[in-house]
Amino acid sequence: MATAKEADIKTVGANRFDFDSTVDVSTLRSLYLGPAATSASVPGAPKKFGAESTYDKESNSIQYSTVAHFPPVRLLPNADRKRILVTGGAGFVGSHLVDRLMLLGHEVTVLDNFFTGSRTTVSHWVGHPNFGLVRHDVVEPFMIEVDQIYHLACPASPPHYQYNPVKTVKTSFMGTLNMLGLAKRTKARFLITSTSEVYGDPEEHPQREEYWGHVNCIGPRACYDEGKRVAETLTYGYMRQDNVEVRVARIFNTFGPRMNPYDGRVVSNFIIQALKGEDMTVYGDGKQTRSFQYIHDLVDGLILLMNGPETRPVNIGSSDEFTIIDFAEAVRDIVEEVQKEEGNSLAKRVGIIHKDMPVDDPQRRRAETTRAKETLKWAPQWTVRQGIYEMTKYYSAQIRSGAL
Ligand SMILES: O=c1ccn([C@@H]2O[C@H](COP(=O)(O)OP(=O)(O)O[C@H]3OC[C@@H](O)[C@H](O)[C@H]3O)[C@@H](O)[C@H]2O)c(=O)[nH]1
């Protein structure tokens, strides 16, 4: 069996609907893993991109330096170069989408309030003539001339979105209303990132797009679940009433580098705990299930959806389902493999402990992706193992550099 590190995926993206979105994985890696962790070779370009930070332990200070060279971006004819707005573009998913859109040669403006996003995720593009970064909260209107809007802005981790539930609902409703208004005025195509959480604690398994869901509208998760449901309602309202061109992605659990290590989601929690030699925390008995997709597969799906003809909601996720307890063991094995390779093996295996199950935690979740396969010709290409391996290398490098 191939090991995780033997990932030989060379390119991501696809050439469909007259739109070539292929990008070398090595170029993407140079943006999040850095040159030391990748064999990236971008012809004619410097090996290191973006701002650099150096931590000094003695003075407990951090020194930043900016770099004025950027990875080469595709040179598109004017007619093909789009002006693209990405709300939440400094978040985990947003920053990877921005990397792709920039490398493909588009003009990208990122809107972010930096509640859960961070400037560092896109700092390697600051100063590029095709790139703009605006601190702005989508609950307020925003004026810009654009051709496409990827509307991602909203906290996505359960502890984050439950921290200020009123703000979460407000972001989902007002933010989507404002961005749809912008799409209506500019005639931009509008894509919203909805979520598998619209299915709630599902009574149907796996979850097809036709399933209406099972959501507790007054529970602690409702601010996000119902927020995204009403955001979808608004989106189709604007489509029917105002002919706005809309796309709706229902994203299932996604992981990858640049995920905030302390945002409380299971993949980041497990990898960080295992790397630091702490017990891994399984909530409840760990029999609940999730299917996890790697970030690059999700970004492929978003770009295909935006540029394809499908206007109905489309699930984008993995159908490789794990119980959380099995997932903890798989993560522990991969982290140990990385530690061994890096000569950092721990004296003993980390333990797995159980904590209380969060209220309304969905018991089963697996993406049914026939629609994405048929209408977008999309299929995930990264295994969970390949993704966890790369994400572990990323966090491990961050711990070594003092950033974590
Ligand atoms: O340390 C942990 C964290 C989480 N978990 C469990 O692992 C499972 C997954 O939890 P996560 O917090 O990562 O994500 P959830 O599936 O609950 O929610 C996610 O759903 C889809 C996306 O839209 C969102 O990113 C997020 O809300 C849950 O059953 C949770 O209880 C643990 O067992 N231990």
Automatic annotation (TrEMBL):
Any one Gene Ontology MF annotation carried by this entry is:
UDP-glucuronate decarboxylase activity
Xref: SUPFAM superfamilies: NAD(P)-binding Rossmann-fold domains
Q: How does it sit in the membrane?
A: Single-pass type II membrane protein
User: Which reaction equation describes what this protein catalyses?
Assistant: UDP-alpha-D-glucuronate + H(+) = UDP-alpha-D-xylose + CO2
Keywords of the record, alphabetical order, are: Cytoplasm, Decarboxylase, Golgi apparatus, Lyase, Membrane, NAD, Signal-anchor, Transmembrane, Transmembrane helix
Protein EC: 4.1.1.35
Q: Which GO terms describe its cellular component?
A: Golgi cisterna membrane
**Pfam family example for this protein?**
GDP_Man_Dehyd
Q: What class of enzyme is it?
A: lyase
What is the annotated localization of this protein? Answer: Cytoplasm; Golgi apparatus, Golgi stack membrane
Q: Which cofactor does it need?
A: NAD(+)
Q: Which GO terms describe its biological process?
A: D-xylose metabolic process
Instruction: Please name the pathway.
Output: Nucleotide-sugar biosynthesis; UDP-alpha-D-xylose biosynthesis; UDP-alpha-D-xylose from UDP-alpha-D-glucuronate: step 1/1
Report domain NAD(P)-binding positions.
Answer: 85-391
Source organism's superkingdom? Answer: Eukaryota
Keyword Glycosyltransferase part of the UniProt annotation: no
InterPro entries under this entry? NAD(P)-bd_dom, NAD(P)-bd_dom_sf, UXS-like
Which family is this protein grouped under?
Answer: Belongs to the NAD(P)-dependent epimerase/dehydratase family. UDP-glucuronic acid decarboxylase subfamily.
List the protein's name: UDP-glucuronate decarboxylase
The organism of origin for this protein: Dioszegia hungarica
Q: What is the lineage of its organism?
A: Eukaryota, Fungi, Dikarya, Basidiomycota, Agaricomycotina
